[in-house]
Amino acid sequence: MSALFNFHSFLMVVLFMICTCTYIKMQFPAILEQRTGFRGFFWKAARIGERLSPWVALGCFAMGISIIIF
């Protein structure tokens, strides 16, 4: 089943994308400097990860627990 049709998988993909974009922006800031176009989408995901990092971390933790339990 595709991740777009399974809500649990979709949330996991979104959380991983936010975490990955934030990590890349911290390690290599020149890659995500452009704020428009295709790279702008990843810049916005990195910005979400920077500003909402406690909530993103809580979401990743909850997703990990739900994968272990279910």
Secondary-structure topology with pairs:
Layout: H1 7-27, H2 37-51, H3 53-69
Helix pairs in contact: 1-2, 1-3
Quick structural summary:
The chain has 70 residues and is mainly α. It has three helices and no strands.
Can you tell me about this structure?
There is one protein chain. The protein has 70 residues and is mostly helical. The chain has helices at 7-27, 37-51, 53-69. Helix 1 crosses helix 2 (37-51) and helix 1 (7-27) packs across helix 3. The chain starts with 6 loop residues before the first helix and ends with a helix. The mean pLDDT is 89.
Q: Could you tell me the mean pLDDT?
A: 89
Largest sheet: none
Spell out the helices and strands N to C.
HHH
**How much helix, percentage-wise, in residues?**
over 70%
- Tally of DSSP helical segments: 3
Radius of gyration: 13 Å
State the total count of DSSP E strands: 0
The rough form would be described as globular
Low-confidence stretches: none
* Helix-strand category: mainly alpha
The fraction of residues assigned to DSSP E strands is under 5%
End-to-end C-alpha gap: 17 Å
Oligomer: single chain
Any descriptors?
70 residues; mainly alpha; 76% helix
